[in-house]
Structure formats: structure tokens, C-alpha cells
Amino acid sequence: MHNLTELTGNATSHTSLSVIIKVCVVIPFFCIFLCCIVVMLRIFATNRHFLDSSRYILFAYMLINDTLQLLSSVILFLLVMCLVTFPTVYCVPLLLLSTSTFMNTTLILATMSLERYVAIIYPLQRPAAWRSDRIWIIILSIWFLSFNFPMIEYSIGERDPAVDILSTPVLCKTVYINSSPIQAFFRAAVNILFFAVVSVVILFTYIKILLKTRKMRQDKVSASKAKHTVLLHGFQLLLCMLAFTLPITESIMAPHVSWSPEDITFFYYFCFILIPRFLSPLIYGFRDQTLRDRFGKTFLCCSNKANPV
């Protein structure tokens, strides 16, 4: 009996330590990301000329979307790690926000690739929808698509009569809230459709910009940057797609590693949910000369205020 109690205590201690380590890894990353996003959004707010460019408007929109996605996913992560349960009525909005902003990311990548394509192929006759004063129509359309599919997924599920959405506490995870086979099938079909369409768009724009670059005699630098940006969009999309290989990888890794399913899930969450969002300000913010200069001046200004001579 004493040995059994000791083993149980060791297992509990190991689990608690694992949770603490995971939280201590996620929270600093999130705080650093949030700090960078706040600085960049402040730069957009204080320099109005950025809002005259569709490219910068889409970039600011992506930063806001990634912030909402990370905020909701980190909250859900902490709730699951701490085994906090609460009624479905409070859980569903968090899951809807997390899912819709995750799907939003793929559509934003496609939209930003198309914007680069339009800017290079039609530099003087840009279509009206891609002008800075009309880009909000495309942004609203993206939100409409991203938010409707999770709503449909939730509405088509079969509800357990024993679960009262107003009072029955549940663990806030998609596999518990949207657990019926029809919901799993719908979710898989939508994810495949989204990523297939976005992959085709990114591949199309990359090839078109590549061909255009070879024909151009002037402004090759701008076209080359656009080509590299679209290529980075494809890399980000690949990281997002890998997040959906969790069930396959879990079944392959489980017999060969001593990790628990929770550890494998955390590894996937960190590598394919968090990391792609951390890459966004690095890829688009620090590669852009204008933003990089403004970013440096902002931090220099803050450091001078913190350490006055």
C-alpha cells in the first residue's frame, strides 16, 4: 500500500512538473510576441501613410488576427493544462474564435500572395477591389468565410441530452464539444478544401511572379522580394498544414518514444500553432526596410525614456 501511494505521488508530481514546464515555455513566447505586435500596431497607428497601401493594411490585419488566435489558443491551452471545466455556453465562443482565426490565417496568406501578384502584374491598373480604400471588402469576406464554417460545424452536431449547455461543466476541447462523426467529417473536409485552395493560389502567384521577374528589365528587386514573400507564405502554410497530421504522427511516434499523448499534442501545438504566428512579424515586419527602421526607432525611443541621460 505504501509503495502504491508513493508511485501515485510520483506520477502526480511528474504531471505537475510537466504542466509547469509547458506553461513556462508558452507564456514567455506569447509575451514576446505580444510586445512585438503592440509595437508594430503602434507604428501603423502613428504613421498614417502605411494605411494608404493595401499590403500594409493586410499585414496589420494579419497581426490582429494572429494576436486573437494566439490569445484564444493560449487561454484554451492553460484551461486544459489546469483541467478547468465550465459550461459549454462559455466554451463555445472561445473555440469559435480560435478555430475561425486559425482558418483566417490560411485565407490571409492567400490574399497577401494575390496582393503581391496584383502589384507586380498590374502596377499601373490595379483592380478596384485591391485599392487601399476598398481592401476592407476583401477583409470582411475573409472573416465571413472563416466564421461561418465553425458555426456550421457546431450546429450540425448531435447534442447529448444529459449535457446542459448552461450548467454541465466540460473540458473546453474541440474533441469534446464537436465530437459527433458528422462534425469530424465536416471539419476534415473544410480543412482539406481550405488548404487545397490556398495552396493552389500560392503556387499560381509564385509561378506568375517568377515568370514576370524573368521578363522584367526594371524594378527586378521589387519583383524578387515579392517572389520571396510568396515563397515564405507557402512555408507558413506548410507549417499550418502539419498541425493536422497529429493523429497520424501520434500513432507513429507512440510506440517509439516515451512521450505521453499530452506531450505529443503540446509539441505539435508549440511547433505548428505558436511558431508560425511568431514568424509573421519576423517575415513581414523585419524584412521590410521601412517597418524595420520604424521598429528600431520606436525601441530606441523607449530605451531613452527608460534610461534618461
UniProtKB/TrEMBL annotation:
> Which branch of life, at top level?
Eukaryota
Record flagged with keyword Phosphoprotein: no
Where are its TM segments located? Answer: 20-44, 56-86, 135-152, 184-207, 228-246, 266-286
Give the location in the cell. Membrane
Specify where it is mainly localized.
membrane
Q: Which SUPFAM superfamilies match?
A: Family A G protein-coupled receptor-like (SSF81321)
Q: Extract the PROSITE patterns matched here.
A: G_PROTEIN_RECEP_F1_2
Keyword set for this entry? Membrane, Transmembrane, Transmembrane helix
Query: What cellular component GO annotations does this protein have?
Result: membrane
- According to the entry, every stretch annotated as the G-protein coupled receptors family 1 profile domain falls at 36-284
One MF annotation (Gene Ontology) recorded for this entry: G protein-coupled receptor activity
Protein known as? G-protein coupled receptors family 1 profile domain-containing protein
The species this protein belongs to is: Champsocephalus gunnari
